[in-house]
Write a structure and sequence with these properties.
Blueprint lengths: L1 H19 L17 E3 L5 E3 L6 E7 L4 H9 L1 H9 L4 E7 L4 H12 L1 H14 L1 H14 L8 H12 L13 H5 L2 H17 L7 E4 L2 E2 L6 H11 L2
Parallel strand pairs: 3-4
Antiparallel strand pairs: 1-2, 2-4, 3-5, 5-6
Helix pairs in contact: 4-5, 4-7
Length: about 230
């Protein structure tokens, strides 16, 4: 009888324990997708990924750079999926603006806010083959250098390239305000000075890994082995 009572008590305890968690095992904790984590540096650039990532990657890019567009199409999907999302690598983008269309695209991308910056910037880069001929046609029809034409020309260039209707998170009505935002223009100007003046980057894209310049690295094929080696 005592042994039967012990067995019943043990069974009752087990049933109560199961009831306390709804009769089911606790759900597994979902892994963090670090591509959803965006931070802003003191200099105003945006960083995607785990702030404690082992590898901190910096990319200097230009929206009118064909090599940057190729990297956005070929490298960014893999970089985000296999490295940033898993918390292994963080990516900071510093805009090395080279011309008026580049500046217009950067200001509109930044106007989408920290969360919208990367999708907007990547959209401009990956559709470069579509809008760049329109940009060239505008330049052919307007002899004066865009930098000498002021805010009105910047707005006209954005419209000529189709940026006013193609940047995610920025409705057409906001375009003029985005392109004449003095605070954001000052941030971008300082970023350009740092890239070409202080850092003296050799071109775009240029990559830094944990603060050190990566020589002869301008595409995914040359960057990926260096990332893999740094993570060993």
């Amino acid at each position: 009888m005592d042994r039967m009572r012990i067995g019943i008590a043990a069974a009752t305890t087990a049933i109560l324990a199961l009831a306390s968690v709804g009769g089911q095992a606790a759900p597994a904790k979902r892994a963090t997708d670090w591509t959803r984590t965006i931070a802003t540096t003191p200099a105003g650039s945006y960083v995607m990924g785990n702030p404690r990532a082992k590898v901190k990657l910096v990319e200097y890019l230009s929206l009118t750079c064909s090599h940057c567009a190729a990297f956005a199409a070929e490298g960014m999907p893999v970089l985000k999926r296999d490295y940033i999302a898993r918390g292994l690598v963080s990516l900071e983008v510093r805009n090395a603006v080279r011309d008026g269309f580049d500046l217009a695209g950067v200001l509109l991308s930044r106007c989408a806010g920290p969360a919208g910056y990367f999708p907007a910037s990547e959209r401009i880069l990956t559709t470069q083959a579509v809008w760049l001929p329109k940009a060239q046609a505008y330049l052919n029809a307007n002899a004066a250098p865009p930098a000498d034409q002021g805010a009105a020309a910047l707005i006209a260039m954005a419209r000529a390239a189709g940026f006013d209707r193609a940047v995610p998170g920025v409705p057409p009505a906001r375009v003029p305000a985005c392109l004449t935002d003095r605070r954001q223009t000052a941030v971008v100007t300082a970023m350009v000075d740092e890239a070409f003046g202080k850092r003296q980057i050799p071109g775009t894209p240029t990559f830094l890994m944990n603060g050190a310049l990566l020589p002869d690295t301008s595409n995914w094929a040359t960057l990926q082995p260096k990332l893999a080696a740094a993570l060993r």
